[in-house]
């Protein structure tokens, strides 16, 4: 973008709404906000405080094939290890348990650490999650960074396998292109990360039969590529843009589809409904603005 600091105005002037490099774009946005003099406001103490708070978003929807109501707690984008530590995770777990959900789903980006970092404090907190139908999750792109995929010489597939086993010991089944019947009328599937893994939604849903279907995908960019209709897809990854500005909204969303899947209720292929959570943690910088972290509680009703 030429010489000189990357200000917000210069960033927005050259920004496209759909970028093939979402990670670089988010970093550039945060640099732009800082260079534009907004650090004292959106990215100063107020931004830190907004990142530290979280709210509970309650939504309800009918789910075809469901035979009885279902309460689901959805937590995603914890980003433990860089700016988020055990105390904040503890508060999220307490809030989820207090809602007494039937099922708890975790949307990936658990970890923001280097390969070899000890996940025990995170797993100690997540092991306290309680739901009669179980706790299920998927990997996100930051998890792959924590596997050591980007580090030369790391045996990252083995590290991924070891972490999958560690999560299982904590009571969390990580679904990687697989699924499970958690109730006679309900199938929960989960896909590998869209950016760093090899997602296969058809495999994740292959055993569903006539059951209602819930599909976990860390990244909503999977939605246009669904192999067929799904009852409901739950996603994270975008953080709602993390930094939202008055009137403008989120200048950048880390998605190849720009604002289309920023947050909230969206629609995928075959008319599939999906919910994109703003998530709980942060990446890039530990700030949020006008984009409160959320724990999502879904009441699903027979369709």
Task: Please explain how this structure is put together.
- With 303 residues, this protein is α/β, with parallel strands linked by helices.
- The protein has one domain (8-302): Purple Acid Phosphatase, chain A, domain 2 (4-Layer Sandwich), CATH 3.60.21.
- The chain is 24% helix and 20% strand.
- Residues 70-239 form the Calcineurin-like phosphoesterase domain.
- Pfam families: Metallophos.
- This is Calcineurin-like phosphoesterase domain-containing protein.
- Keywords: Hydrolase, Metal-binding.
**Mean pLDDT over the full residue set:** 88
Strand content: 15-25%
Q: How is the CATH topology named?
A: Purple Acid Phosphatase, chain A, domain 2
The tally of beta strands, per DSSP, is 12
Order of helices and strands: HHHEEHEHEHHEEEHEEEEE
Taking strands numbered 1, 2, ... along the chain, how are they ordered across the largest sheet?
A: 1-12-2-3-4-5
CATH class: Alpha Beta
Protein name: Calcineurin-like phosphoesterase domain-containing protein
Organism: Deinococcus carri
InterPro entries: Calcineurin-like_PHP (IPR004843), Metallo-depent_PP-like (IPR029052), Metallophosphoesterase_sf (IPR051158), TAT_signal (IPR006311)
Keywords: Hydrolase, Metal-binding
């Amino acid at each position: 973008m030429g010489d000189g600091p990357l200000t917000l105005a210069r960033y927005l002037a050259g920004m496209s709404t759909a970028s093939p490099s979402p990670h670089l774009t988010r970093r550039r946005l945060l640099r732009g906000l800082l260079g534009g003099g907004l650090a004292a406001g959106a990215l100063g103490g107020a931004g830190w405080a907004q990142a530290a708070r979280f709210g509970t978003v309650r939504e309800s929807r009918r789910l075809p094939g469901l035979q009885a109501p279902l309460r689901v707690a959805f937590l995603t984008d914890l980003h433990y290890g860089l700016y988020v530590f055990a105390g904040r995770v503890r508060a999220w777990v307490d809030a989820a348990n207090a809602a007494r959900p039937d099922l708890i789903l975790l949307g990936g980006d658990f970890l923001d650490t280097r390969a070899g970092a000890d996940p025990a404090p995170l797993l100690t907190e997540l092991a306290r999650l309680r739901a009669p139908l179980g706790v299920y999750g998927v990997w996100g792109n930051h998890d792959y960074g924590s596997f050591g995929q980007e580090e030369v010489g790391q045996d990252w597939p083995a590290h991924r396998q070891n972490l999958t086993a560690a999560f299982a010991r904590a009571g969390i089944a990580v679904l990687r292109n697989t699924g499970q019947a958690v109730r006679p009328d309900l199938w929960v599937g989960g896909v590998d990360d869209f950016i760093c893994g090899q997602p296969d939604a058809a495999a994740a849903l292959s055993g569903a039969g006539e059951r209602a279907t819930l599909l976990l995908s860390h990244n909503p960019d999977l939605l246009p590529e669904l192999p067929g209709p799904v009852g409901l897809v739950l996603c994270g990854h975008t953080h709602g843009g993390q930094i939202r500005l008055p009137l403008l909204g989120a200048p950048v969303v880390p998605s190849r589809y720009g604002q289309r899947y920023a947050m909230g209720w969206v629609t995928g292929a075959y008319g599939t409904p999906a919910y994109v959570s703003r998530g709980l943690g942060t990446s890039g910088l530990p700030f949020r603005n006008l984009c409160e972290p959320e724990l999502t509680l879904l009441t699903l009703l027979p369709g």
